[in-house]
Amino acid sequence: MLSQAILESAWGTSYLATHGNNLFGIKADATWTGDTIEVITNEYRDGEKKQEKHLFRKYNSWNESVADYAKFFTSTPWRIKNYQSFREATDYQQAILALRQSGYATDPKYGEKLRSIIENYKLYLLDN
């Protein structure tokens, strides 16, 4: 969780984090009924990086962002099934693999970036 917040929010300094209190880059899909913020983001389509406008969930605080992230992976029947391996992961390596296999992010290097953050800052010491 911490490595995703670091990566997605650029250590809490991104526009989305500072103006939308969204630490995890969670987009506002049809199930979202709260406030939104429009942001231009990098997406990878067919191996090519492209900039696209998307609506993201907007929160009143970082605490709300963390709480919503915790609920996100079980918030719909599809997410319950799709992210089951992620939720059941017992270490960061399994979690990273499960996120990649679930299609959580379009960046093909998302897992490598998470692993780098976790290992460089020894975030695995916070597990359990």
From TrEMBL:
Signal peptide: none
InterPro entries xref list: Glycosyl_Hydrolase_73, MGlyc_endo_b_GlcNAc-like_dom
Catalytic EC class: hydrolase
Keyword Ligase: no
SMART domains, A to Z: LYZ2 (SM00047)
Domain Mannosyl-glycoprotein endo-beta-N-acetylglucosamidase-like residue range list: 1-127
Keywords: Glycosidase, Hydrolase
Top-level taxon of the source organism: Bacteria
One Gene Ontology molecular-function label: amidase activity
One Pfam entry name: Glucosaminidase
Documented EC number(s): 3.2.1.-
Membership in a protein family: Belongs to the glycosyl hydrolase 73 family.
PANTHER family to which the protein is assigned, alphabetical: PEPTIDOGLYCAN HYDROLASE FLGJ
Protein name as catalogued: Muramidase (Flagellum-specific)
Originating species: Streptococcus suis
Gene: lytG
